[in-house]
Design a protein that fits this description.
The protein is an alpha/beta fold. It has helices spanning 42-51, 66-74, 94-109, 128-140, 205-211, 233-248, 281-292, 312-321; strands at residues 4-6, 12-14, 16-21, 58-62, 115-119, 146-152, 162-164, 170-172, 194-204, 219-224, 256-260, 296-301, 328-331, 338-340.
């Protein structure tokens, strides 16, 4: 097997292995990893992503199912072994199947990669260039053990989360000595946090075998824009809808959507104090799907008309922190094909 030549870093020759986990025993969605998503088995997307990445030179599916193995091979992946039953249950963790795969490859083939890339079938949307960039990032940082893909946390921030004891006492989920009572602070004053989106993990093999970990001590973060992880039936239908929008999109169908901020993107605030505004997460997701489908998104607002105050910087910051994807922000009312506000087109119909 030819090693991958990484030209950007002193012509390093590396073995880079992609492992796609696909056990058969999903409880949330029966046979989730091979369920058809737009006429293709779910795990086929991850196989294709790995095969199309020029940094990866071997693609293996780790499964406990002969049927899954046949499907994986039909899409170009290797399945040199079947995963043992005792590490294929609901409570089995990723570390177990990685160790099994690496031990089998070393024992049976005298093969051991330098870097492992995990691509979960439950995240069928990812960019090949992101995989390459994450591999390059790990190579460029000899001090790092792994790279994990993350997205900005735009909904439930940890500073406002709690543990609840049996006697009904709340204890903060996290504390920060530099911030007085963070759970009582406005969102804008709290640090930005990220959560793993289960798309890509890039790990040094020695981190797995020598440190007994899939992450190690120094974990680098690679920020992505989206999260498509499928865990339940609702997630599956949501991803199916979002992908259908992308596939059916063509240039002739591009429309301009003019979307009011307050009442649609932000909840109405008393006294027009927009600094206290909170995001309407469900509507932001709908707007982002329109953006992803190629439509032009213009945000408009009358903020400042009554108060005489300049809300431009705050509004732009809120849109960024809330993850709203748009092309233009206007204070006023521009020309558009559709107007979405609390009196015209209902966003719930989109």
């Amino acid at each position: 097997m030819q090693k991958v030549l990484i030209e950007n870093y002193n012509n390093i020759l590396l073995e880079i292995l992609a492992i796609i986990p696909a056990r058969a025993g999903s409880k949330s969605i029966a046979d989730k990893n091979i369920r058809s998503l737009l006429a293709k088995p779910l795990m086929a997307y991850s196989i294709e992503h790995a095969l199309n990445c020029d940094r990866i030179n071997r693609v293996i599916v780790s499964t406990d199912s002969k049927l899954y193995a046949e499907i994986a091979r039909s899409y170009g992946a290797e399945v040199p072994f079947l995963r043992p039953e005792d590490i294929s249950g609901d409570l089995s963790n990723d570390y177990e199947f990685f160790v099994h795969a690496l031990d089998w490859l070393r024992t049976q083939e005298n093969y051991l990669p330098d870097i492992c890339v995990q691509l979960r079938p439950t995240h069928p949307v990812r960019k090949t260039e992101d995989i390459s960039s994450m591999i390059d990032l790990l190579i460029s940082r000899p001090d790092a053990d792994s790279v994990r893909s993350v997205v900005m946390n735009r909904s439930h921030i940890p500073y406002k989360m709690w543990f609840l004891s049996q006697d009904s006492v709340l204890k903060p989920f996290t504390e920060d000595k530099l911030i007085h009572e963070p759970y009582n602070q406005p969102r804008q004053k709290l640090p930005v946090t990220y959560f793993q989106n289960a798309s890509v993990d890039v790990i040094r093999t020695k981190t797995i075998l020598e440190k007994g970990s899939l992450s190690g001590d120094i974990i680098l973060g690679y920020v992505m824009d989206e999260e498509y992880d499928i865990d339940c039936e609702e997630d599956f239908e949501n991803v199916k809808y979002r992908l259908s929008e992308r596939i059916s999109f063509n240039d002739e169908s591009i429309k301009t959507f003019c979307i009011d901020i307050d009442g649609i993107i932000a909840n109405i605030t008393p006294g027009n104090n927009y600094a206290l505004a909170t995001p309407v997460i469900e509507n932001i997701s709908r707007i982002n799907r329109l953006f992803d489908a190629g439509h032009r998104i213009i945000l408009f607002t009358a903020r400042g008309t009554l108060t005489g105050k300049d809300w431009k910087d705050l509004t732009a910051t809120q849109m960024n922190e809330w993850g709203v994807r748009y092309h233009e922000l206007i204070f006023g009312k521009p020309s558009a094909d559709f107007y979405i506000d609390d009196r015209n087109l209902n966003i719930s119909k989109l």
